[in-house]
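Thread title: Can someone regenerate the structure for this chain?

I was given the following input by a collaborator and told the matching structure tokens would be attached. They weren't. Posting the sequence so someone can regenerate them.
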Amino acid sequence: MADEANKSRPKSNWAQIISASVGVIAIVGVAWQAFAIRKNFSESAARQVYMSYSEASLRTPALVEPDLDKLKANHDQYVQYKSFVAHMLFAYDEIFRVYDEPEWHKSFDSDVKYHMQYICNDMLRSDDETYFEKMRVILKELRKTCPAKG
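Best answer:
Regenerated them for you:
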């Protein structure tokens, strides 16, 4: 009877080892799925925000390449412009969080150049805190190119 108990013990240990290994693989699989879902959600959200900004650009071309003095003369248009710039910065903020690639930075540089007068002179520095760290750094670097106020 002791022999029978000893013979069954190694099989039992192997079963436990295999069971534990399968459990670890399952946990790793679930963790990977959670990571992939989160990544896909972040990418989808960033694309949606950017598409919203792109649609706003198509609807309001006067805000894309603005005549800031003309916009400031009409309070409602100026408020709309400030919101447009905030939307643009937010869209790129989301994009840079997910796709921090040179092509996106070139696109940003192409868009932001039309808004430097506003960013340099009128945009509140405290507004920078509403963005993620990458955008805050980008805004800080952009402002270094602003002409000195005289």
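Residues 2-59 form the longest helix (58 residues).
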